[in-house]
Hints:
The protein is mainly α. It has helices at residues 15-22, 24-62, 71-94, 96-115, 120-148, 152-183, 188-191, 193-204, 221-244, 249-271, 279-283, 285-315, 320-326, 328-345, 352-370, 379-407, 412-450, 457-486, 492-497.
Amino acid sequence: MNxxxxxxPGAKPTAEVRDVAEGPSLARRRWWTLLVVSxxxxxxxxxxxxxxxxxxSAQSALAMSDASRQWAVTAYALAFGGLLLIGGRVSSxxxxxxxxxxxxxxxxxxxxxxxxxxxxxxxxxxxxxxxVFAAVLAPAGLSLLSTTFTEPRERGRAFxVFAAVGAxxxxxxxxxxxxxxxxxxWRWCLYINVPVALxxxxxxxxxxxxxxxxxxxxxxxxxxxxxxxxxxxVVYAFSEAESLGWDSPKVLxxxxxxxxxxxxxxxxxxxxxxxxxPMRVLLHRARAGALIAITLLFVAMFGFYLFMSxxxxxxxxxxPVQAGLALLINALAALLxxxxxxxxxxxxxxxGMLILPGLLAxxxxxxxxxxxxxxxxxxxxxxLAPALVLTGLGLGCVMPPTASLATANMHPRDIGAASAAYxxxxxxxxxxxxxxxxxxxxxxxASYLAAPHHATQTAASVHGYTAALxxxxxxxxxxxxxxxxxxxxxxxxxxxxxx
Length: 499
């Protein structure tokens, strides 16, 4: 990496000194940026889960077939995951604030279209459009946050709030989806995005404008096509593996094809003069550690959310709303972890001192649930609540430092790509975690039922859930071991500038 690829690590003035120098108006604009970016982050994350709860009602209303209903979820995931890297490049070329506002307008319009859908095909198309605009909205928002907050302490507070919204969004999506579907209509699971996006758009007009990067060359068309098709193939393979199994020819063909396309993409990016994703973004040691940590944490956590939903509803008999409310414990713990722990300690301790305890806390939460049996009593206080608190604290401690490390002290032309890589890591982790751990649970449950000890369906299901969560526990412990040497730096600034 050349010296020009990073910003010099010279001393930065404190937030208080900068506020005096800038005046109260510019100081307020910085925190206004945090508010509107967090609102957009909530839209993107919440939309990944809120439709799941509404899907049975939407299927009935639009007469969807069982074979096609998955596209209400898959269309969003494919467009979002496949276009993230292109969205990062667009954000740099047009300017992060302009791209952010375009993303908000498009997301609101596509959400309104989906809410008004009268056929399954129109709903699927609207969900794909939501994914397209989310793919430009997410990296633009993270880029705005990274360029706005540079002083360590205020950066820690800002990324703590941003991460809290992201960590709580999935759980809030389940709660909101249940409430809206039960007391309003499944259509409001899409309509609700419109006022939130428009309010964020109004707020974005007060965000400090940034300059588009000029003279950065034409779009890397080969890289764009390879990355979009490769990511889409891998995400689609993961989603199909849930129902078809990992040994399905279709899944194997998609997975193999996707990996080959991404391998060719990496080769192209090394050789092109203006790459979509410069390899220096991925080969930076601390940044690589951050991307590995967030990817594998999402593998474990999305499996965790899946089984919390299944277990509470099918075994404990909770309604969808009650199951979602139980997950609020996790959301509140994530809020505390990201703001009161990670946000306050950012810049005071090495990033690894937050990431590693966070991974181990989440692993401990998974371990608590592996002790569940069909005969367990006092499940909420003895098992669910401790697991939800520990995983929430872990998620809250890992997301702020990894988001900050992913974009720290970079040349302006690389910030969009780094933001997109961070969001793509989350998307891939979520898709893989849901498919992988669901497969483990289903396979283990089937084997348990086939064994000659006359197991009940409930006992078999619990056995399958605990087996999958044991795998998630192992993934998190292994992640801590992998990430430890990569994030072993003294300060956040050193992590952002090391080579």
